[in-house]
Amino acid sequence: TTLHMAALLGVAILMWANPFPPSASLPPSVRSNPTHLSVRSLRVLPGLSRRCVRMHATIDAGGTNREVDQRKGEDPETALVSQKGDGKNHWREGEGGEARRSQLGDGVAAAIRRTGGPFLGEKESLSPEVVFRSECWDQNGGAEYLRSITEWNEALEGLPESTFALRRVSQISQTTVVAQWNITFIPPSLLGFTFLGRRLPGVEVRFIDILHRIEYPVTGFTWEKLRYLLKCISRGFLPVPYAVIQGTTTFHFQRGYDSKEVESKWSRMVTENIKSKAKSRAFERYSIETEDMMNVRQRFQDRYDEASNQIIDRVFDALSEPQPSVATERSDSEAKIPMEYLLMRQSEELDLIPYLDAGRLKNRRIANDLLSFLDTRKPPVLSPYEWDNRVRQRCDVSEVPGMGPLDIDGLDPETQSEFVESAGAIITFGVVVVLVLGVGFAALYFQQVSQEAALKQILEEL
């Protein structure tokens, strides 16, 4: 026993002194490319201590070695990933290159948290000609970009109990920053179910994530599901699947610009905006409608909008639970984007869109959550009908089981096909019966008409 304890103590000392195992025990992908090492591969390596995983954890991104910057007191879910370099360090310019890159990433993360969405709200960091690209629409100009921030906040208010969370901010080059975020909210179709669960005594509503079932179709009612639901309620909780929309936003900056030229462009943009408003007011003044008619129509529209908004707010307030706002202090709340960087281009991608394009999105619940989120992202320049058509064209969910034009909710594909075949047979039989009866009634009618004509002819001859 003493020898065994001594041997174990020696192995522990060796592992602490040299936490990395020999190259023979590494996976083939890691042996061929040592820099291509991820956190997941580190965790499965034999003989690797947790201290090594914490201190030497790297993230795989296009074959570039990065180090997770886990500062003291920083949230690991929103930890900033900064570029460490590959020896040559072709991004570094002078001794302050690393500090500038870290400062840019910290500034972007702080700006996103202040804005409450994947946008930069500071006008000083925006180009007047900034370009925004999304899955369903594009827009140009700094004024439209700032307006889209307001639209984003209004969209979050339209989703029940929505929450924006910044998952990670990564700086992949000297002028490029990638932000990963997600939006969680209660699907509108489950508001009543959630309201009922919160009113049950001794039952806690637990929200669950169902993104892992993205490739599994939603089946219909089964007694097994009912037993599972009753079992959960008996244990004191009610599982409710909530919507999770994950997205990635890429910010492309320009380093070094003429500040006077940028200020002049912003001033010209404001002047043109004022002129366009004056022209629109002049057009309204000399339009066919008189001023009184316009005022009456506007008052009616305002009252209608106010009444409808009050009804919607009351329904959401009754079915949803108010979330207390907790002010959290962060170390980077005062971080700013360096003055020499200017945002030129921004692109936004939703993680569910590639699954939908590849035909791998089979869960009807997740597809409905995606459409609910996109319904609130309508740009101000498009009407609701135009936006709905654009979303339907970009996100074709007709191939998702249960979301086709002839799909029946609550039935699996096999049962639905059998039901459709049975319904087709019944309809065919009904059509045949109607045709036979129609032909019979037509024959009787023509026979009666011919008899009346013959009788009339006989009476005329008499």
From TrEMBL:
Keywords: Membrane, Signal, Transmembrane, Transmembrane helix. Residues 63-104 are annotated as: Disordered. Residues 66-75, 85-103 have a biased composition (Basic and acidic residues). The chain crosses the membrane at residues 423-446. The keyword Transmembrane applies. Residues 1-17 form the signal peptide. The keyword Signal applies. This is Uncharacterized protein.
